[in-house]
């Protein structure tokens, strides 16, 4: 069938269905920030932001969002889930200035007869009552046929009859969820083709879930069957195994089906990080498109291939998503990976020096140490026995912590050769150290402490309680992300090590740019 130039609409439901994720709840201000980013930066076609009648805080957030969206001309893209409750959900939505109701109805005979204890005719009468009221209040109405995938399988006549009875009621989109994520791509294709053949003038959406890891494939096959709206969430957020990933769906529809999608894919990674931070749900490093490692080559052979003309590139280039390709440093990395990293940091080394450095990296990799690109200047300095990265050295450090007591730290440090003493207190040993260190740096240098984004502490798998602890801290410094590492048997000292590294990197780049 002719697929090209067909435009598929994406409906994001991170803020409604995504919020069903275990332990995820977005406070109103975060909800508004995510919604604004999705609408304005990513340019999502449709956005479901809440369930009606949930809470007053939620209502305030939706109201604020609608007010903003009205001034931007985007308010008709915002949708709210509501219930078959005659006036209640509709009034809630109109109070917030909303324009679209996504009505939740029962899409399977089982749900209708066992949960509602109603016949289809009774249920349809209730639905029509709510729809009529919504239309009279100026809302546009879409309808979810909840549990449609099971309904279609177990009681198809119920599904056909329901759509037939509602098709002329003023409802715009009939939204067909695979509520339990049980379908396969073949089943999606066959069932949706059937629905579209029976009701050729009806707009159907498909709403996949990812229980079998098939959500993206199912979205693709729904579109192949002729569906023109797909529901998804950022980072696959959602109940159980989550919904379909917005990033994957958008990219698959474009690359694999040659379709147009309206979103700006350059914003996908940014939005993913925003939602990761606000939801507190970390995505795996190998998550397609948005994971930390998906544009990192770990094998030296691949880096060599890249050097010789993109032998290991696909249509999934990092540039599309405003990301950069990187080359891992570890025991698998070869000469080419190292050369790429040195080049990126403007470090020039002789052949002989590069060989020695590589040996060192391979050895560290063997000891299960992870090496970040930021480690490289320190390894080089060590190798060349240069001191120019050690602007600040910790000479002595004592940490006192106790239950229900502020932690106290006293330090003796050398800053560019002069010895300083300082003390600090805080919420834990690490915080106390930062406060002591800030005092020293304020006396000595103009130093802006970067924002701490992430603090990861781990003992390598198989390690004992006495093992070396590795701490990786992610900092945001003037828009740039910096990751530094510290290793120590003492957990707080590992964090302190990572912090000293960050300070030395910053002081070094400051001194070199001062000249
Ligand atoms: Zn869902």
Tally of structural domains: 3
CATH topology (fold) name of the largest domain: TIM Barrel
Count of helix runs = 17
Distance between the termini: 64 Å
Structural class, please? alpha/beta
Instruction: Provide the β-strand percentage band.
Output: 15-25%
- Helical residue percent? 40-55%
CATH class of the largest domain: Alpha Beta
> What CATH architecture of the largest domain would you give?
Alpha-Beta Barrel
Low-pLDDT segments, ≥5 res: none
CATH level-4 homologous superfamily of the largest domain: Aldolase class I
InterPro entries: 2-IPM_HCS-like, 2-isopropylmalate_synth_dimer, AIPM/Hcit_synth_CS, Aldolase_TIM, LeuA/HCS_post-cat, LeuA_allosteric_dom_sf, PYR_CT
Protein name: 2-isopropylmalate synthase
Family: Belongs to the alpha-IPM synthase/homocitrate synthase family.
Function: Catalyzes the condensation of the acetyl group of acetyl-CoA with 3-methyl-2-oxobutanoate (2-ketoisovalerate) to form 3-carboxy-3-hydroxy-4-methylpentanoate (2-isopropylmalate).
In short:
This protein has 515 residues and is α/β, with parallel strands linked by helices.
């Amino acid at each position: 069938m002719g697929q090209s130039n067909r435009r598929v609409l994406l409906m994001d439901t991170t803020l409604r269905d995504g919020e069903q994720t275990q332990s995820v709840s977005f406070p109103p201000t975060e909800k508004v920030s995510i919604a604004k980013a999705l609408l304005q930066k990513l340019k999502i076609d449709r956005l479901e932001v809440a369930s009606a009648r949930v809470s007053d805080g939620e209502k305030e957030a939706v109201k604020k969002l609608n007010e903003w969206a009205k001034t931007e001309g985007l308010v008709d893209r915002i949708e709210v889930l509501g219930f078959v409750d005659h006036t209640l959900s509709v009034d809630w939505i109109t109070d917030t200035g909303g324009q679209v109701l996504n009505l939740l109805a029962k899409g399977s005979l089982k749900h209708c007869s066992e949960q509602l204890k109603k016949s289809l005719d009774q249920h349809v009468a209730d639905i029509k009552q709510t729809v009529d009221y919504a239309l009279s209040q100026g809302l546009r109405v879409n309808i979810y046929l909840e549990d449609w995938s099971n309904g279609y399988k177990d009681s198809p006549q119920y599904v056909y009859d329901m759509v037939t009875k509602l098709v002329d009621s003023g409802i715009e989109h009939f939204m067909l969820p695979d509520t339990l994520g049980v379908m396969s791509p073949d089943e999606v294709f066959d069932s949706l083709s059937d629905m579209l053949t029976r009701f050729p003038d009806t707009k159907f959406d498909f709403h996949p879930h990812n229980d079998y890891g098939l959500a993206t494939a199912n979205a693709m096959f729904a579109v192949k069957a002729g569906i023109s709206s797909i529901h998804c969430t950022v980072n696959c957020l959602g109940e159980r195994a989550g919904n379909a990933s917005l990033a994957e769906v958008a990219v698959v529809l474009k690359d694999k089906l040659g379709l147009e999608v309206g979103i700006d894919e350059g914003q996908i990674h940014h939005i993913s990080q925003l939602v990761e931070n606000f939801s507190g749900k970390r995505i795996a490093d190998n998550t397609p498109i948005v994971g930390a490692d998906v544009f990192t080559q770990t094998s030296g052979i691949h880096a060599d291939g890249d050097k010789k003309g993109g032998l290991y590139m696909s249509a999934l280039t990092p540039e599309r998503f405003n990301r950069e390709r990187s080359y891992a440093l570890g025991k698998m990395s070869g000469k080419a990976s190292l050369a790429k990293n040195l080049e990126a940091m403007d470090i020039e080394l002789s052949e002989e020096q590069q060989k020695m450095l590589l040996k060192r990296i391979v050895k560290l990799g063997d000891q299960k140490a992870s090496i970040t690109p930021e480690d490289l200047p320190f390894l080089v300095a060590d190798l060349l026995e240069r001191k120019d990265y050690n602007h600040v050295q910790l000479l002595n450090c004592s940490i006192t912590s106790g239950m229900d007591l502020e932690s106290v730290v006293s330090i003796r440090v050398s800053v560019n050769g002069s010895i300083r003493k300082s003390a600090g207190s805080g919420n834990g040993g690490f915080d106390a150290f930062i406060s002591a260190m800030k005092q020293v740096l304020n006396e000595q240098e103009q130093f802006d402490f970067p924002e701490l984004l992430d603090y990861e502490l781990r003992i390598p798998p198989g390690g004992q309680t006495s093992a070396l602890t590795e701490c990786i801290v992610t900092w945001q410094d003037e828009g740039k992300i910096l990751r530094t590492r510290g290793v120590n048997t003492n957990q707080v000292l590992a964090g302190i090590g990572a912090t000293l590294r960050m300070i030395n990197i910053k002081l070094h780049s400051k001194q070199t740019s001062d000249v």
